[in-house]
Design brief:
The structure holds 2 protein chains of 2 kinds.
Chain A (H helix, E strand, L loop, with lengths): L5 H5 L3 H7 L14 E2 L17 E9 L5 H13 L2 E7 L16 E5 L11 E7 L13 E6 L15 E4 L12 E7 L13 E6 L15 E4 L10 E4 L3 H13 L12 E5 L11 H7 L1
Parallel strand pairs in A: 2-3, 3-4, 4-5, 5-6, 6-7, 7-8, 8-9, 9-10
Antiparallel strand pairs in A: 10-12, 11-12
Chain B lengths: L3 E3 L2 E3 L4 H4 L7 H6 L20 H10 L13 E3 L2 E6 L4 E4 L10 H16 L5 H9 L3
Antiparallel strand pairs in B: 1-2, 3-4, 4-5
The chains are: A alpha/beta, B alpha+beta.
Chain lengths: 289, 137
């Protein structure tokens, strides 16, 4: 990368910045960039641009009369001022609340939220005292999210990491396209939960709706109650001691440990009959080549 | 703990994919010339007795009781070299050849997590360059 100062970059437009940073001349060879770790790298725990917040510095924000954009902007401004604990009051079902927080933060939402709350987050610890609408914490990367009451459909859609917890029940398609992380549901979950799951773990302490784990590619689903039906290529597997230890630790951590323990949980994994890695079948390739 | 069992494919030895870069075992894999599946056990649960001081500090700084998203990070292997998949730049980041790898996957995974965090949080990471280029000043 060319040695360009931040001051010089600020004076440029976007096109000039991209060129000055060498992004137009970079040679891409092979199937991926060759990058190697620096084993002497410094011990940093947050992104270089992340605000330095203090969990003990707390403030409150009244959402009443504000737009979602105004509230989300205020969260960022408060984080820049070093506030590490922010309490949102009177959310009144606002959509897209608390999205895109990419750093450590304690966020407490006193009330219920609408669609797509707390999506695209990377690191914060969030607690919602009420309910949440569709697609809560979609594309979550890291952190913890705890919903005290019920959640709508597509809870944790495409989640990639972190712990997403709903103490109540959730709607259908929970964890659709899950790519990592952990989803914990204290109550029941609706139909097609774990649909196209690729990785990660889902725990349902109550009952699961029909077509659980349909077309799942990988990952693990644990269900404490009844399963209405399994989806295509979802199969039951043996609950190992490692599974039990992990379930016990995780459920205890969030106060969801059932009185009767975890031995009764059913484990569901991918049958892997749908695995296809090449676009063409070998015989088709031979025909074309 | 030389290797791990993984549904669908058996990882016989912790160095299996270093010694055998192609890793073609089944008839199907040999037919398509491509390894099928992960080259590590994606469902391997971390052994918290093996956590490094850096990772313990990271959990404390973030306010987490466990490794959180890092539970899904493992040391894998790309083209015969130890590497870690970095979701933030959608590619493998290699462990330098000079680095001495432990003899078991649990310790390797802990090292992978530590190196990945340090890399993601540094100015060397491609996201830093992207941010400089595209962020709104």
């Amino acid at each position: 990368m060319a040695s360009v100062t931040d001051a010089e970059l600020k004076a440029m437009n976007q096109e000039e910045r991209v060129t000055a940073l060498g992004m137009r001349t970079e040679q891409l060879t092979g199937k991926s960039l060759y990058v190697e770790f620096d084993t002497e790298a410094a011990d940093n725990f947050t992104y270089p641009w992340a605000p330095d917040v203090d969990f003990n510095k707390r403030t409150e924000v009244d959402c009443d009369g504000k737009t979602t954009t105004e509230v989300n902007r205020q969260i960022r401004e408060l984080m820049a001022e070093g506030y590490g604990t922010i309490v949102l009051q009177n959310p009144r079902g606002m959509h897209s609340l608390g999205v895109g927080i990419l750093s450590r933060l304690n966020l407490i939402i006193e009330g219920s939220t609408g669609y797509f709350a707390i999506g695209l987050i990377d690191g914060p610890n969030v607690r919602v005292t009420g309910r949440v609408g569709w697609s809560c914490a979609e594309n979550m990367m890291a952190g913890t999210v705890v919903i005290e009451k019920n959640a709508g459909s597509t809870f944790g859609a495409a989640i990639r990491g972190g712990d997403l917890v709903c103490r109540g029940s959730v709607g259908s398609r929970t964890g659709i396209d899950q790519k990592g992380g952990t989803i914990l549901v204290g109550g029941d979950t609706g139909a097609l939960s774990g649909f196209m799951m690729q990785r990660g773990r889902m725990v349902v302490c109550g009952n699961a709706g029909k077509n659980l784990g349909d077309s799942m590619y990988d990952g693990t689903i644990y269900v404490g109650g009844d399963i209405k039906s399994l989806g295509v290529d979802a199969i039951k597997a043996e609950l190992t001691d490692l599974d039990k230890a992990w379930l016990t630790r995780k459920l205890t951590q969030y106060g969801l440990m059932p009185d009767k323990g975890v031995d009764h949980f059913t484990k569901v994994v991918a049958g892997k009959q749908l695995w296809n890695y090449d676009n063409l079948e070998p015989n088709e390739k031979k025909l074309i080549l | 703990m030389a290797g791990t069992q993984y549904r669908g494919s058996e990882i016989k030895d912790v160095d299996q994919f270093i010694n055998d870069a192609a890793g073609l075992e089944t008839e199907r894999e040999k037919e398509i010339g491509q390894h099928i599946g992960y080259r590590y056990d994606v469902n391997l649960v971390p052994d918290y007795n093996r956590i490094t001081p850096f990772l313990a500090k990271y959990m404390e700084v973030m306010g987490w009781d466990d490794l959180n998203w890092l539970e899904d990070v493992h040391m894998g292997y790309e083209e015969g070299a130890a590497a870690v998949f970095d979701r933030n730049n959608n590619g493998w980041v290699r462990i330098p050849d000079s680095f001495e790898l432990p003899d078991n996957q649990q310790d390797r995974d802990m090292i992978a997590r530590e190196l990945l965090i340090k890399f993601q949080m540094s100015d060397r990471h491609p996201l830093s360059t992207l941010r400089k280029a595209y962020m709104k000043f």
